[in-house]
Design goal:
Largest sheet: 5 strands, parallel
Bound molecules: S-adenosylmethionine
Radius of gyration: 23 Å
Strand order of the largest sheet: 3-2-4-1-5
Shape: elongated
Length: 287
């Protein structure tokens, strides 16, 4: 006996003309939605980041569709063609390799220009690694900031993280395995003592979510060079933030032993306050 009831037949209601922004699974193929299947089967053209990846997805569901490439490089050529097709009343679907298009993936300009030209734009929601990771991390979700991929080069990454340190919200980053260790170390330095989580291979066979203090995750050998796709989440810091007086006391003590930058880093770690603000205050105190 089948474990699941068979999915309902695809809808035979014709699709309205317009651009459909279709989410696809981030691993587990069963995360496709029925509506996504309706749209992919019923549209005139599917714009795909990688036509081979999307071709495999479609054939897994017995769908054949006209596919065209729409990645970072091909988008400039594909966009005018897609806009012209929309102008003729076509139903055009946009998909990325996995998850929701436009979320650290191409498509923003196409959506903007389609809307500006007066075409309907329909979101077809589904999987996205940012929401899947938030759902399992056990960190506050009332306010979160999706920060995408940190810059690959260390100086740019530190400046990027320092800018985010004062934001009282859960921060969500995408990262690749080869850069995870250095990113976690920079996050521990920039954000201090905060709860965090590393979510890897979500919805796939080797799915893991490891939760703990940022410094502990940064020192965890399993994150030295892990394989697979990763989301890093950093909690918003303490509920009751340390006061300015606490910071001054700790900074004065640290400045008696250390240079301002080192003192700021030490206090940031201890009190979970932004290193950049503490550095500024350390310079004032020194003067
Ligand atoms: N548009 C996609 C979405 O909605 O999540 C994201 C595309 S972005 C190019 C790819 C990054 O998303 C990966 O490097 C990883 O950080 C994250 N990601 C995608 N799938 C994932 C998964 N199954 N588990 C964990 N992270 C994932």
């Amino acid at each position: 006996m089948a474990r699941h009831p068979p999915p309902p037949a695809l809808s035979d209601t014709p699709l309205a003309p317009g651009l459909y922004v279709v989410a696809t699974p981030i691993g587990n193929l069963r995360d496709i939605t029925l509506r996504a299947l309706d749209v992919l089967a019923g549209c005139d053209l599917v714009l795909a980041e990688d036509t081979r990846v999307t071709g495999k997805l479609l054939s897994a569901f017995g769908i054949s569709a006209k596919l065209e490439r729409h990645d970072e490089h091909a988008a400039e050529r594909a966009r005018p063609k897609a806009l012209a097709a929309l102008g003729e009343g076509a139903r055009v679907a946009l998909v990325s390799d996995a998850g929701t298009p436009l979320i650290s993936d191409p498509g923003y300009r196409l959506v903007r220009e389609a809307a500006q030209a007066g075409h309907a734009v329909f979101p077809i929601p589904g999987a996205s690694a940012v929401l899947a990771a938030l759902a399992a991390a056990g960190l506050p979700t009332d306010r979160f900031l999706f920060a995408g991929f940190p810059p690959p080069k260390s100086a740019a990454r530190r400046a990027f993280l320092d800018e985010l340190a004062g934001i009282r919200a859960t921060l969500v980053f995408y990262e690749g395995g080869s850069r995870l260790a250095e990113s976690l170390a920079d996050m521990a330095a920039a954000f201090g003592a905060r709860e965090a989580a590393v979510a890897r291979e979500l919805t796939k066979l080797h799915e893991t979510v490891v939760r703990g203090p940022l410094a502990t995750l940064a020192a965890d050998p399993q994150f030295a060079a892990p394989k697979g796709e990763i989301v890093v989440l950093v909690g918003p810091g303490r509920e009751t933030a340390a006061t300015a007086a606490d910071a001054d006391t700790a900074l004065k003590d640290a400045l008696s032993r250390l240079k301002p930058a080192e003192a700021a880093a030490e206090v940031a770690k201890a009190l979970g306050l932004p290193r950049r603000d503490l550095y500024r205050r350390a310079m004032e105190l020194k003067r």
